[in-house]
């Protein structure tokens, strides 16, 4: 029995052989080009976000806040260390240690910002000049107006005068505790207002985050110090309750309105 004859497969015609190449030219190559362009654009965007120019101006809010708040913090650290040496009260000492450690750390952090931005730590303009910028209109920050009424030797609102620092240096026991709590409450109120101005106008993410943390921490310490003064039959030099109420009202006004249908019930 003879083997079956196997017919050879026909050679593909030139038209059939060219058909896949035609499809590639028509659809594949343009699609690949689009994907490649998109990938390059995405890579450029990611690179810009990660490594792009982020240096704020030397006379802007970010740099001004870093310099002024560093100086403000320096006195808070000084007063905290003074009272730590002049009282045996554990609550006051614990508060003073927290303020000294936290604000000392924040001073270093703000100095590092300036170094990273390639900007000098020393200011080239008046203190708090960044708070007088036109784009601060509409924000209730009166630091620049307060600058005109400062006592001699007081560089910024809220800071203690040289005479008050000497009084704290000479005091001891409960007298030192009360003076420290009063001075630090005044100091914190102005510090919160300065940090709020940075939250409203700064451009650098690290500044915005740190400034908001300062607002939250110092508002909490103001409440604590008000209560500690009451325990010592003393009061702050400011109407802290009215100030806190104004803060709450401002925060409520700035809070975003709830999105309809996102939760809650209307009755």
Task: Provide a descriptive summary of the structure in words.
By secondary structure, the chain is mainly alpha-helical. The chain has one domain: Up-down Bundle (Ferritin). The protein has eight helices and no strands. The longest helix has 38 residues, at 14-51.
What structural class is derived from the secondary structure elements? Answer: mainly alpha
Top CATH class: Mainly Alpha
CATH architecture: Up-down Bundle
Number of domains: 1
The fraction of residues assigned to DSSP E strands is under 5%
* Quaternary structure of the protein: single chain
Shape: globular
- Report, as a whole number of angstroms, the end-to-end distance: 97 Å
- Average pLDDT figure: 82
* Largest sheet geometry: none
> Helix amount, in percent?
55-70%
Give unreliable regions as ranges. 46-52, 134-139, 262-267
- Rg result: 32 Å
Kindly state the number of beta strands.
Answer: 0
Helix segment tally: 8
Region (Disordered): 1-21, 248-267
InterPro entries: DUF305_CopM-like, Ferritin-like
Protein name: DUF305 domain-containing protein
Transmembrane segments: 29-51
């Amino acid at each position: 029995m003879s083997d079956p004859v196997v017919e050879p497969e026909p050679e593909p015609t030139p038209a059939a052989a060219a058909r896949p190449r035609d499809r590639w030219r028509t659809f594949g190559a343009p699609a690949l080009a689009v994907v490649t362009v998109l990938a390059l654009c995405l890579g450029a965007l990611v690179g810009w976000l990660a490594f792009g120019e982020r240096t704020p101006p030397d006379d802007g809010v970010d740099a001004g806040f870093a310099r002024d708040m560093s100086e403000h913090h320096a006195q808070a650290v000084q007063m905290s260390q003074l009272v730590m040496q002049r009282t045996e009260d554990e609550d006051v000492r614990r508060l003073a240690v927290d303020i000294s450690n936290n604000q000392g750390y924040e001073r270093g952090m703000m100095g590092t910002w300036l170094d990273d931005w390639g900007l000098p730590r020393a200011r080239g303009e008046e203190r708090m000049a960044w708070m007088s910028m036109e784009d601060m209109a509409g924000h209730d920050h009166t630091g620049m107006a307060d600058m005109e009424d400062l006592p001699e030797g007081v560089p910024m609102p809220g800071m203690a005068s040289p005479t008050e620092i000497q009084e704290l240096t000479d005091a001891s026991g409960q007298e030192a505790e009360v003076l420290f709590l009063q001075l630090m409450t005044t100091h914190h109120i102005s510090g919160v207002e300065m940090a709020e101005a940075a939250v409203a106008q700064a451009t650098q993410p690290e500044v915005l985050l740190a400034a908001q943390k300062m607002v939250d921490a110092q508002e909490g310490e103001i409440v604590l110090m008000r209560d500690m003064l009451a325990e010592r039959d003393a009061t702050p030099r400011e109407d802290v309750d009215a100030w806190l109420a104004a803060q709450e009202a401002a925060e409520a006004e700035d809070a975003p309105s709830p999105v309809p249908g996102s939760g809650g019930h209307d009755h």
